[in-house]
Amino acid sequence: KKASDKVQQRHCFRCGSEKHLANDKNCPAAKVKCDKCSKNGHFARVCKSAVAVVREVIVPEFTVLYVD
Question: Which of 2, 6, 14, 17 is the most buried if burial means most Cβ atoms within 10 Å?
Fold first, then answer.
């Protein structure tokens, strides 16, 4: 199928609802903090931020012995 054959459904980018758009003053996500990116105004389930990459660096511990 062509892309033009697909039905584009509009939804709120703040909460994901198909019943209103983001400019609706009653959107439940308008004043919340996202648990994924910590920005205000949207739920984590619709967050467009890239997933944070957490890297762990392991430094082996060692003991240095000095001989006199």
Answer: 14
Q: Where are the beta strands (DSSP E) in the chain?
A: none
Domain count, the chain: 1
> How far, in Å, CA of 56 to CA of 27, rounded?
38
pLDDT in tens, 8-50: 679 999 999 999 999 999 999 999 999 999 999 999 999 998 7
- Domain assignment present for 57: no
Q: Identify which of 47, 40, 52, 50 has the alpha carbon closest to the alpha carbon of residue 16.
A: 47
Query: How much is the pTM?
Result: 0.59
- Rounded-to-integer distance, Cα 43 and Cα 34, Å: 5
Give the pLDDT score at 52.
60
